[in-house]
Amino acid sequence: xxxxxxxxxxxxxxxxxxxxxxxxxxxxxxxxxxxxxxxxxxxxxxxxxxxxxxxxxxxxxxxxxxxxxxxxxxxxxxxxxxxxxxxxxxxxxxxxxxxxxxxxxxxxxxxxxxxxxxxxxxxxxxxxxxxxxxxxxxxxxxxxxxxxxxxxxxxxxxxxxxxxxxxxxxxxxxxxxxxxxxxxxxxxxxxxxxxxxxxxxxxxxxxxxxxxxxxxxxxxxxxxxxxxxxxxxxxxxxxxxxxxxxxxxxxxxxxxxxxxxxxxxxxxxxxxxxxxxxxxxxxxxxxxxxxxxxxxxxxxxxxxxxxxx
Length: 309
Ligand code: CP
Fold this sequence. Notes:
By secondary structure, this protein is an alpha/beta fold.
């Protein structure tokens, strides 16, 4: 089976069949990653550039490891150490890299739509590793994979996204994916951080009371406050944010059930999540990171158009 798209620009463009194919393929690669030799020759004829115009720890290392595990040749670009500082444009930069026989581009950029722009102008397949406040498709895929692994099929599961929904590309990609796969989605946070169009346009529930939201869900995905993307004050202080919307052990202990706690990282301990929640047995935060490698292997492998071995 093949994906219906040449690029992975966003979950918005994927069908539910595409998503299932990626998740099934990721399961196969996760099995490979449990072996003593965690490597397959699938992409040994492929060269990939990791083009990061914005900082990253998890996504960047995860893609790099996925490429190594697939035997691809990988080169890494960081805008701060490149000729971007001399005024070179995005398109000139990419065309120069592609002229060295590079086949695929993994790209993170602070501008929403940057990978979509690139896709109109270059022949190589592009994987969006996060564009501004738009999408972070591989994060949503690894989140879905991790939920399935923990509690089974996404169909009918109640998933809560908490926090800075307005500036979160993780939230938008998760909402698209979870709705396509039959999950129920609720967002919770301060009214100033929840876009008013969400409820109508994407059929998500909105709840401003965190305790009620937690009582509703099976899974809570806690998001970071994206201070770097906020150009105005949207809540009173981080301390007050923590009091109203921080996920604490006391809140979780007051529920009648045990829910799954997720976070895409990086975590701001003591702001959106307390340490005794982030590090608890309810938390699958590090499993999400582990699963990111298998999911990104699946995406790269499928976009390279290879048959299963
Ligand atoms: N989750 C995530 O995108 O983390 P990084 O910014 O470290 O890649």
